[in-house]
Batch of 4 targets.
Target 1
Amino acid sequence: MKNERIYQVVTVKEVRVENPTSRSLICAVELPDAQPGQFVMAWLPGVGEKPFSVAYSNPLTITVAAVGPFSQALCRLQPGACLWVRGPLGQGFQPAGKRHLMIGGGYGAAPLLFLARQAIEKGQHVCACLGARSQQELVLIEEFRSVGCEVRICTEDGSCGEKGLVTQITDRAMRDFHPDSLYACGPRPMLLAVLELSRRKRIPAQLSWEALLRCGIGLCGSCELDQEARCQADLPAGWLVCKDGPVSSFYPQ
Amino acid sequence: MNRPSADLACSIAGLKLRNPLVLASGVLGTSPTLLERVARSGAGAVTSKSCGPEPRAGHPNPVALPWGGGVINAVGLTNPGIEQEVPLLIEARQILRAVGVPLIASIFAPTLDDFGRMAAGINQAQPDLIEVNISCPNVGDEFGKPFSASADTAAAVTRLVRQHTSIPFSVKLSPNVTDIAQIAAAVEAEGAHAITAINTVPGMLIDAYAAQPVLSNRVGGLSGWSIKPLALRCVAEIYRAVRIPIIGTGGVSCGLDAAEMIMAGAAALGVGAAVYQRGVEVFAQISEELRDFMTQQGYQDLENMRGIALK
């Protein structure tokens, strides 16, 4: 008889420090079916369970910003520690075209790195606009560069790259990089601003939404996207971030 | 030979349903928009997530997990409290009337008196049916033994609800009892209009590597295909004991499951965990499969099929 396991126990192989509050946990396992934009639910017994974008599938990598008790516990894990995961879950990005403009806000850069790697492996072009409040909150800049992306950076306080919001440098990249598609992951106001750019320039956009996830499998209803975001993103009523998303597609009229 | 297509319409407690598939409480019933989505996906009726007197956050993650036998959950009665729930249900009811799908409003309460208050409160939303949840298995630490545990307590809740509302109501029973038929009979005697059976089955799953239960609440409710035989047995026992209609719930995920549940005596069918397996399209899919089965087997309508396995 087979014991159908809920979680896969994975060993943390390497912990990469991304910035003072973020770590990438590189696990000693492959998640071959995972697509960029999909997520896993990570469980630490007795501590909690939260969703994390797959930052790479081979080996499984998640990038964690220590924002609460659970993510702090994850960031304290050392190589050799165990982590319980279920997934991949949700709908990921569906790359379209050959010139991809990726817009990442803070740790929202993580799933985009995975997407960028896949596109570059196919010989396509990627420009990544990465922003954060300050240099300390930027993640994965060197990784984007090393896989061969053109990287543009901005911070709200000007401590790294251009001073301002990521949408500023995105606006410019839309003019001089000539993307076929936009892909964005980051805070909600950033996603709404990307939608506006998409609409104005008539370039399709795929957005990865963040929400409070509980079941992660489309049953509990906790992660329904609110009406404002749903209407702006042209999504149907009752759109669930965990099951219908986290990535939504927007085609400007 | 071409037979006429079978009729899936049914009625419970005066409610007319285009098909017998009811969205079970606790699944996707948290907002008017989600209830609408399920209604538009082909459900015959939809049940809102159980609401109590006060807002509740529910249990911390993990709260719901798929496993080989279906789903185990201990969400912990997350709800906004009756005050915020009523306007949401009014909005839902208006949307659903336009779609032609009845709204069932689920209520729970920590004490007997609160059940009376909840029944009175939910009146303002004027749902088509009230479902009285006396059998949530996931709040034992706070609420103690559920009211569904004995005929006396189940009857007491039923009596109080009856006194506080004129809207028809169904009482949702737990399978975790010695004699579910006796409890169903007691609930019927106090004036319930229908019975929903069964609630999830109390259970526990342990991760051997963690050496811990997987749910933060340690125990939870099992739903999905592994509980179907238990649900069929309970529905059959209740069917023999009462005349009021039964919303048969537990492990219905395809047309044949639906047929079996009706043959055990159900008038309508709750569908919950199957939404995980087959998506929200499951309602239209089961309807189609049930209709095909009935047409092929020569059952003209649900009435022809109800309880025939017990004859």
Note: The longest helix of chain B spans residues 82-99.
Target 2
Amino acid sequence: MIILIMGLIPLIGSIVVGALPASRTLLAKQITLGASIATLGVAIGMGVAFEANSTDRFQFTASTEWIRSFGASFALGVDGIALVLIALVAVLVPAVVIASWHEQAPGRRSPKVFFALLLLLEVMLIGVFAATDVLLFYVFFEAMLVPMYFLIGSFGGPRRQYAAVKFFLYSLLGGLLMLAAVIGLYVSAGKGTFAFEPLIGAVTDPGTQKLLFLGFFIAFAIKAPLVPFHTWLPDAGAEAPIGGAALLVGVLDKVGTFGFIRYCLPLFPDASRYFAPMVLVLSVVGILYAALLAMGQQDMKRLVAYTSIAHFGFIGLGIFAFTTQGMSGAVFYMVNHGLSTGALFLVVGVLIARGGSRMVADYGGVAKVAPMLGGVFLLAGLSSLALPGMSTFISEFLVLVGTFTRHKAYAAVATVGIVFAALYILLLVQRTMQGPVIEKVKAFKDLTGREAWAVAPLLALVIFLGIYPKPVLDVITPAVQRTMQDAHQSDPAPTVGVTAEQKAGNR
Amino acid sequence: MSGPTGVAGALAEGAAAPVAASGAIQSGAWLLIALPLLSAAVLLLGGRRADRWGHLLGAAVPVVLFVYTVLLFASLHGLDGGQRSRDLHMFSWIPVGGFQVDAGLLLDPLSVTFALLITGVGGLIHIYAIGYMAQDAGRRRFFGYFNLFIAAMLLLVLGNSFLSLYVGWEGVGLASYLLIAFWFDRPAAATAAKKAFVVNRVGDAGLSLAIMIMFATLGRVDYVGVFSGAGGLSQGTLLALTLLLLLGACGKSGQFPLQTWLPDAMEGPTPVSALIHAATMVTAGVYLIARSSPIFNLSEDGRTAVAVVGAITLLLGCVIGCAYDDIKKVLAYSTVSQIGYMFLAVGLGPGVYAIGILHLLAHGFFKAGMFLGAGSVMHAMDDEVNMRRFGGLWRVMPVTWATFGVGYLAIIGCPPFSGFFSKDKIIEAAYDKGGTSGAILGTCALLGAGITAFYMTRLFVMTFHGKRRWADGAHPHESPPVMTAPMVLLAVGSAAAGGLMVLGGSLQHWLTPAVGESIEVGAHTISPVVLTLLTLLVVIGGVAGGFVAFGLRPVPVTAPVAVSPVTTAARHDLYFNAINESVLMRPGQWLTRMLVFLDARGVDGVVNGMAALFGGGSGRLRRLQTGFVRSYALSMLGGAVVLLAALLAVRFT
């Protein structure tokens, strides 16, 4: 029930905002903010009520018959992984609403449409993570494209049409493959249902598993995106309005990596194992390749987009290393990356709002003129390079250490990524924030209260979870362990170990 | 060897590992990290309101922490040797399946000794900075970063696992970055800060891989767990571990081949150079190796690598130190060189760790003192750093001269100043290693002592003696008491600390539970007395050389151009920066540019091309308007309907 309420709040909000007359912009914003905060409140309530060690796979379930003849139902529910991602959505949307308060459409559209679309996107994102029916998941997976498409295409930068079309085509191609795989799954499982749980382990034929795996995998790899399916993201991230970019890269892309864990691994365990080396290679290549590309970007939004592709490489690595640490780290990485990159996009947006340009070269010495902006920019950057003390470090280290226990070489190469991350972030900081104050920057205002309220909670959360990640990890880990069981995987034991005798001597 | 206990002992005899912390003083040790962190937050977020009192709060914090640490020291010192390792469990930090890391502190002689150095010398330098930064509009921010550093550094030494060490490790790296870039509108400062962080990250990558190996092999990353299981590791694993730990240590401590960032770090305000880039942070590598002594004890090759790195660096540092005219850069290379001595010592293995720590503590006093002296000189000379523009300052700055002089005597190893005890013992221990390697390492150390005496004499004479070569309009004056008082106290430490710590082997006994028993009398290769006399002779030679070259002859205001190839090379940092630039930076920039091009034309081009195959012309893709997308969407929806129909057919047939 609570999950339905959670989806209904932004849905009703979206409809109300959409129905308002175009002149009532302020009211539209207030309703949007209110609805998103109410949704956050529900998410907090769910977090408190959630029982991490419950034997049920899903909690807060709600189900009703949907398409009877297919055995498809409108079934919702969350496990620990879905819960933390839904919580991420609920945290990011209010921040984006606050940050986008003065959002203006470049064309004729009314700002209220922007906010209605934001809330609609929130509904779709909650649905895609909460769906426990494969067909329903597919529907949300496709439907969330629509609000995002219009956010980019109507409210984006100069090349918004090109970026929006590219985003749409890539996603549709992936979606089509997935639809085929969903149907194939239904047919070959022969259970007469789309419900997730009965389908686990239902497809046993190795060849079929591989084909179906690829259908899901390519759709998710485009969405995540992994190299070489990534080229739509820098365009979409650069042209989207800042709030849209934060949600696109912060959450929408996570649906891909979420899909790996929820669908690819439990439904096709043998195929997952078969294709794992390929995915690991793509991930490691992505970490280094995208990091090098990030260093070479002149456009700040494209730069952040490329850093995210490198981060997605870490997530892919953690998932397909098949260890509890790697996978828990990957899930935690998704949350942290959403907070961190969300914050980074919003801060970059503040800078762009001041300077009217996305180009790094148009800035210099900003921290001297606007110290708070400089400080927040640096903090967001440090969270992106996974500084210890911040939650991003915990997740990155868990991914690396989890990968290392099984695949030493991949982990060692991926570790080079932490040096690259320092370079691309600190180069950006140096070029924009430090050095002599250039003429244009001299008149810059420091962070306003509204801007601070949008970003500070995200960064505070990143720091808090860096010091005390246990509450989130305790929610994630049982769900990850269950996924490991579904995928017939177990952690490698320490090769030497500390013997009981030695332990006894120390206690 | 009588039963070593504590963390190191846990390996040797399975003896009692740390006992739970007891008493209010020990249980409250987390305040050592929380207080400076809180104060940093207050200073950085406090806004202009805090400008009036911010520096006072900032300086008071390390002083209070020092008092606390003294109490902590007393509470441990009152216990038996075996009881002096205390574990303070705080909370479960990262619990994921088999990976269980708790946040906790290890209070033992090694960590508390470091905490004394950090808070003691740190407190003095904080007080000094009140005066030094008085004219700077960013003084509150400065103290915020300084307190942040203290918190991170204390976490580094007090944490009870390699992972908490790593957090402190990168935390001090952040503080160092922020403080090098304190005057970030200067491009040189911004570049130096970035370089420091990135080079450090190279080392950090090594350290994090080492931690991964520990978890993969032993399933633990806390000190107790790792050390108690280390005996079961293969020689290959141990070597990999020691080399990766060494890589981490080289990054943080500015050791070969990662030394290039440290001289550039002198772009930061001078108190930063004194505290972070001389007395404390850069010695963290030595701490890491001493802390990991149970691992290094098991790998002869790993120890040799440490000693060799130390020997190379100590010579490299002092050779370059002879060539620079910038007083801070000379001191920086001197730091590189002195830390080389410490690495050499801890690389010599069981029994010599304590001597490395002894030199570290002595260095903490005398180098911090000399940096503060250099800051005092710069303060007086309008931020001039070129020693060719100094000269004859001893008359106008008697306190600075005298305190710097004590530091100078300490670093060259003049008895009975502190450097004498520590450096002499390192040279002795190197020779005592025996064999060819011992002879080579010992001779490097001996030679280094001579060159150190030479370049420090050069620095001292050029700055304080000889003719006044001041720039026009310079009116040097002695610094205010808030600056000179810390200098005096550090000078007292530089003079007396060495002797006090050696007296009756007090420091070695104190450190035994943490780093193992010191080997007192082995077979000496060369009689200690002879070696001491030989060392003194070499040092006197170096001093005489420096005095003849720079004290008796006039010093030209512009550096001579016609110099030997060695001097030219030394002036260019022995070309390490040039090598980095041509081997790493330029190819890296080309690679990046090439990839950016490829990604746009290649990967994206292929995809656009494929889209063109279906859509009929890539130009059309760019021109596509919303209407086209709607029709695409419709066609996809149509496809979906067809597929669903097919599904229905399957179901009902």
Note: Confidence is low (pLDDT under 50) at residues 1-6, 9-16, 614-627 of chain B.
Target 3
Amino acid sequence: MKKRIYKIILLMILILPLNVLAGIPLDTVKTNVNSVIEVMRDPKLKGEAGKKVKEQRIVAAADKLFDFVELSKRTLGLNWNKFTPEQRREFVELYKTILKDAYVEKITAYTDEQVNFTKEVPLSETTIEVQSVIMTKSGPVPIFYRVIKKDNAWKVYDVVIEGVSLISNYRTQFREILGNNPPETLLETLRKKVDKK
Amino acid sequence: MNCRGLIQYFEIIYFPIEKMACLIFLFHLIIGFSTVYAAGPARSPEAGVAEEQQIVEKSADDALPNKPAAREEPSDEYGNVTEEQVVSGEGPHVADPLEPWNRAIYHFNDKVYFWALKPVATGYKYVLPEGIRGLFSNFYKNIRAPIRILNNFLQGRPGYAGIELAKLLINSTIGVGGLRDCATECFNIKGRDADFGQTLGKYGIGHGFYFVWPFLGPSSARDSVGWGGDWALKPTTYLGGSEWINPVNIGIYAHEAVNTTSFHIGDYETLKGAAIDPYVAMRDAYIQYRAKALKQ
């Protein structure tokens, strides 16, 4: 009888610290996502004057939330290796600008809705999926953040909205261009896209 | 410390303080290592694999102008990709032999959205308060219950078929003809979405090829068949006469589309604005979305 109790105690001790560890990525993502939303909602940052400050704050908040190099590598996959170091750097910067506009637009489209962070699902030893759901008027929209642990910080490398992975979606698009063209062609396409904004 | 292995602790009847300390020490050692390992150099063993793949790729396309540059790879985070990074971004694929047709129809639908659907939905949204549009949403969702009931059943989920049946009964009565989703709001009953295309997928039938329908949008060979099945199970299909497609059921469908769009104005614009090639982005999003439905 007593032996069993020890087994149970041992089991409980083994499980306990894992639960404590598990709360960290979720909280990190939650805090950083909320800080982006806060900047977007800030009534003081309206109009032309506030626009620039707003822009800068969003960039700062997004840098905290995302690991753009990791994101870029996972998007390009093996094609990343075809880029020269300079091209890689330029790609990350261009991609970041495009994503920032797209993602910020997407999550702020729901500014009035409630965001609930629900749970964490481990994907590998260093990666975890933080699941959240936005309660919109026409139903819940699940948004999952895939995060990686680097230098003791959890950073987002993929966002999955209603089952659609951001990095996969862009990988398919980039692959069409890189299939028949050198990396420079893709960079040129991205430059044009960024300039248009 | 008198430490003779973990197994011993199962046999001890008393738990002396020193042994407890030993256990905690051991335990922290284990946790400590696993944490360090998890945070640590997990990359290096995989880098070799990725490099091998890179060499294979290189020999495949020798014509690349920057071949020597990629060799001198940076040692920081800008270095070559690992296998995990390559695998993680790989999504489901679909054949697209009819791409010229699909692209043409995509552009047609794009115009239909901006010139007709969006202005109509915007006006509709302006005229009707959100609460009323929500009632319509609930109504149309409730009308589709037979599709969910039958397909949950066909997919070997009779439990969910029963839940969807219960939801249909509750919403059609207490929910006043499906205008309110009382099953969810009052009783917190959660159903499971199911359609015929999904059922075919569960039976192992692939998409076949990607297909874009005028007005209706992205689909595939399999999902188009699925839509036919879903249409047959929708009670509103049988309004307005015995014809499969008639002005009444098309009108109802059009209203459903406008009502749904009124909640999603801006979604398509975001997707299009963020995309490098909106057609490919849409196709990939559709295929990923359907893949997720299959996994559920």
Note: Chain B has a mean pLDDT of 80.
Target 4
Amino acid sequence: MRESLDHWPFVIGSYAVGLIALALLIIWSYRAMRRAEKRREEMKKR
Amino acid sequence: MHIYANPKRFLSLASWLMPLLFWSGLVLSLGAIAWGLFMVPPDRLMGETVRILFIHVPAAWLGMGGWAGLAISSAALLIWKHPLAGIAARAIAVPGMVFCAICLATGSIWGRPTWGTWWEWDGRLTSMLVLLFLYGGYIALSQAAAREGGSMKIAAIFGMVGAINVPIINRSVVWWNSLHQPPSLTAGKSAIDPVFLWPLLVAVIGFSLLFGAIVLMRMRALIAEQQVEARLRRRALDDEAPLSAAPAMEGA
């Protein structure tokens, strides 16, 4: 018997996994950059 | 390339290039996703799951392309001792690993309705999983070297040796029997219908631009961290210098 599946939950799941991972990566990279550059500026002022 | 050996010159380039890559990448990626999700018809064989390819293929391309970039940067570090090459390799590793993981996860989700299984230990899937572990190994090695103040040479050699896996991934569907379909895009030829090919190409370009922006963000962060470390070391040496000089003067 051939299994029939609704494809849309798989499509939505794929995009959810991919886009959430990508968004987290962008936010983490941006915050790490800002934090490191802020620390460098503070060091320069001291 | 050596023009940008000076971090100051590189940072002035990155300050305008990063937002340009980020915003153009974001617009193209979101546009391609909307195109792939809502405007492309379902495929005759794959049905609606064909839409997963618009995120799976760019992720696969960037997982492999990321390691190629990491290997080239590692070679530049070993051959020319380019000061930014080690930073570039470290900056590529994390986004490369994330895209590799996205490729594996979306491929697995795609496999369930298409092949009837979440996972199959065939050449393509296994070699891609090996790439994920290679990324993990490189990140651990390079972070240990950076934390202990050691040489990046071992991580760079690891990066170059690991590059052998990239052509294996690429040719795995030709060399071994696989559930995965053979290459759909080869030089000058495409087995993909234009209705799917164009949004796919836009998605690949968009995600590649986003990848470039993330790498530049990470490079800026790593350069700033190195500069703080260097300043702290200089200060520590300046603080120690008068103390070590004092007994000598007393004895004289």
Note: The CA atoms of residues 49 and 58 of chain B lie 16 Å apart.
